[in-house]
Structures are given as C-alpha cells and as structure tokens.
Amino acid sequence: MAQPIQGAQVVSRVSDILRTVSERAPHGISTADVVAQTTLTRPTAHRLLTSLAAEGFIDHDARKSLWYLGPELYLIGSLAAERYDISALAQESLRTLARETGESAFLSARRGDETVCLFREEGSFPIRSFVLTEGIRFPLGVASAGLVLLAHLPSDEAEDYLGRAHLSGRWGAQHSAVPLRERIAETRQTGYAVNPGLLVEGSWGMGAVVFDRADRPAWALSLTGIESRFRPERQPELGRLLLEQAHLITKKIRNEG
C-alpha cells in the first residue's frame, strides 16, 4: 500500500488556517476561534499561526490578540489576480444591481466545492441582510450563489457532489439531497436561484451564474435582503436583472480571452 505523502497533512492544516483567517478579514480572529472553526488543537493552531506570521503570511496584533492575513498573501494574490480576478469587469454590474434594486449585491467565486464571497455593493434600502460578507465561504448548494453554481454544473458532477456533500448535518434538512435536487431543477428552469431564508430566517437571496472562457460556472452574482423585498411577484424582475448583468460579465470575460 502506498504511503501518504509526507507533509500533506501539514499543507492541509495550513490551508485550513488561511481559509479560516480569511473569513474574518479585515476584523481579525483569535486563536480560540481558529481552534473552534478547524479540527486543530490549540497548541497546533498556535504553532502554525506563529510560523505563518514569521513568513509574512499572517499578521499578529499582540495588543488585541488577533490574527490577520499578512503582506505575503497580498503580494502573491496580486500576481494570481492577473488570471483569476474579474473585479474590474464586475464592479459596474454590482453597482447597477444595487442601484436598480436597492438590495445589497455580491460577487462570489467558486473554489472547488465552495463559494467565496469576494465583493459587496450596498443598496439603498435601509434594512439589510448580513449573511454574506467578504471572505465568507459556503459549500455549493448553500446560499443562492452556491445553489446557482451547483445547478449549472453538468448533471453527473452535481450528482457526484450531492452523493458526498452531506450538507444537512450542519445546514439543516432543507439542504439534504432531495430538497436540493428540487431547488436545482427550479434553478435550471428559471436560470436564477432563490434562497428562501434557509440560512437565517427572514433573510432571502437570489443568484445568477457567471461563466468563464471555457463555459464553466465560475462566479455568481447575488442579491440579499429581507423577505418582504423578495415577494413572488418581484422575483422575476430581480431574476431578470441578475441574469442580464451575469450575461454581461460573461461576455466581457470571453471578449478579454
């Protein structure tokens, strides 16, 4: 039997820490919260955080006892942005969605089996939902961005994911395979996804997919707000606006290729 690759466990643990710290950017996170959100013991988490800080990947504010993303990640990220960043192409669409709907508009990226919220544009409506924040991650199928990306995967890939994801344990019965399949079917029919307050009661969301140059679902635009702003009679109009802006960004991405 082949032996595990030496160091693979360390890489996995470092990845967990970086993702966890990124979810709390720019506010910072304590060692205790890192431990609570990962499978690491406190000594292991502290040792890895300290080592990452020594290399510049993490910053530590000793006065507040909080950890932040470090300057090395910024430098590396600025280089990676040349391939992955579509913020310049999406900014005007986010502003348009926020202006025309009054809701908060978001851009999320697919990263493997997860979505990562990248940018937020506030709308004018004074009551807002704060389910989505920059850096927060959700599994595919969770929240409107994760649902619309999952729905636009090839059917065999979506089924493979549903067979191994087991979302209901953390995210509730409505995220088990059967109700998820129903929402996937609805999303494929309309083109946009609806999250009817499944994460936080009364906080609704809708999403539309943005495709990359290979016609793969890679990003999602979404709107979030309170339930009364997402009544059935308004959903088609919100869906139309999302689909229009998602299609516009997809065209820009393809034209840049």
TrEMBL record:
Q: Could you list this entry's UniProt keywords, alphabetically sorted.
A: DNA-binding, Transcription, Transcription regulation
Q: Which Pfam families match?
A: HTH_IclR, IclR_C
Any idea where the HTH iclR-type domain is? 8-71
Q: What InterPro entries has UniProt attached to this entry?
A: GAF-like_dom_sf, HTH_MetabolicPath_Reg, Tscrpt_reg_IclR_C, Tscrpt_reg_IclR_N, WH-like_DNA-bd_sf, WH_DNA-bd_sf
An annotated GO BP: negative regulation of DNA-templated transcription
Give every IclR-ED domain span.
Answer: 72-255
PROSITE patterns in UniProt: HTH_ICLR, ICLR_ED
Q: Name one GO molecular function term.
A: DNA binding
Q: Organism's domain of life? A: Bacteria
Protein name stated in the entry: DNA-binding IclR family transcriptional regulator
Organism name:
Lysinibacter cavernae
Q: Mind giving the lineage of the organism this protein is from? A: Bacteria, Bacillati, Actinomycetota, Actinomycetes, Micrococcales
